[in-house]
Amino acid sequence: MTALARFLFGRRARLRWIHLILGGALAMPYVLVGSVVVGPVAGDADVFRSLSLQLASFAFGLPLAAVTSLFPLTRPLESGVVRWLCGVAADRLAYGPARTKGEKGRTAAWFTLHLGAGGIIAGMSLAVPPFAAALIALPFVPALRDDRAGLPGVLHHAWALALAPVAGAAMLVALASCAAGCGALLARWAPALLGPSPEDRVAAAEARAADLAVRNRLARELHDSVGHALSAVTLQASAARRLLDTDPEFAREALAAIEDTTRRTVGELDAVLGVLRDGDAPGTAPAPTLAADLDGLLRRTRAGGLRVTATVATDPRALPPLVSREAYRIVQEGLSNALRHGGGQVTVALRVEVLDDQLRITVENPLGEAGEAGEAGEAGGAGGTRAPRPGGGHGLRGIADRARLLGGAAQAGGAGGTWRLHVRLPLRATG
Predict the structure, then answer these.
(1) 108-136, pLDDT tens digit by residue?
(2) Residue 148's Cα: distance from chain center in Å?
(3) Are strands 347-355 and 307-312 parallel, antiparallel or unpaired?
């Protein structure tokens, strides 16, 4: 009983009833236009004195409503009303104007259905409650039983007077049932008639995929540039503090490297934030590449005390710009990995070469005492031998993403006491 009462008189039922009454109000101008046509044809100047002529005017006006539903704002307005009054989820409704023939046809069908059902329920809502109230009060108000009240003769019988309140209450319940049922049907049909078309769903999915791709790319750029800078600056500051008294020259070099690293990182950060603000940030610093910035990256890394042996067996200037840019980030993250986990106590071997029309990047360093000198996790290959540190693994996933987007592959893992990162990037990127 509680569920039935909620279905008939609950908040959602009341809102849907309001939605139907709004449909009836919208139908009135079309009914008036229909009465102008039906009246002369029927030979009656006042069609509202006859229920049949009213229904005929109503039927004549509905096709006019279907035609006017082609107005571009009809679907957005109806979708908004359905969302708030009928309780239909926003993602199941389309808020743009109807463009294709199918969308216009479904919008016309919905608008006609809304006005048709709304006109009937609104008419019932005006006529039934007063009559039902009169029936309920009939046994208790003698004036209602007067012959001049115009009540049917059957209501003057004793048994009719006794049943009149029950009949009045039943009429009100029937009215609420009709309103709740029509409201539920409209809410059920709304997604089919006002919902997005397959083309809309594909366009929305493509837009979400594009936004997600941009977010992932920005996340990788921030992780690789800012993360590397923080690791390098931390190590360089630590080395400068330890050797400030014994090796002032080295301390000055480390401080200069910190200054250079932070300046470059601020420029890269401005570029990334410019993309976030404007979609395209003219005038910001260009993205670093292997051809232009590898030497500076190695110099800043060595300034922190990390021993790096680099073998570049190809001319970075001959690499395609996209491959050169992504390769720089991969090398940067490989060195950053060693900085974070190995500090200045390990020697990192970097090798960059071109084999079989592929750029191959290899970064190797000894495993730490706990069995790992890199981030625990996978980059398309075996993971480390130690449990992942909290929040770790993002760099290797970023490397794997960069390689995969260019049609290449990345592998990382520890074996034989050495942590090895190996990345292959096709020179003709397929991503």
Answers:
(1) 999 999 999 999 999 999 999 998 998 89
(2) 66
(3) parallel
| CA 226/CA 417 separation, integer angstroms | 29
Which one-letter DSSP state was computed for residue 287? Answer: P
Short-list 309, 391, 313, CA closest to 359: 313
Pairing state between β 409-415 and 418-426: antiparallel
Buried (b) or exposed (e) across 97-128, using 16+ Cβ within 10 A? ebeeeebbebbbbbbbbbbbbbbbbbbbbeeb
Which of 65, 63, 83 lies closest to 74, judged by CA? 65
Q: How far is 141 from 168, CA to CA, in rounded Å? A: 14
Q: With contact defined as beta carbons under 8 Å apart, do 18 and 79 qualify?
A: no
Contact 239, 249 (CB under 8 A): no
Give residue-wise pLDDT tens across range 382-398: 333 333 444 445 678 88
Alpha-carbon span 97 to 175, nearest angstrom: 34
Q: What is the mean pLDDT of residues 292-311?
A: 83
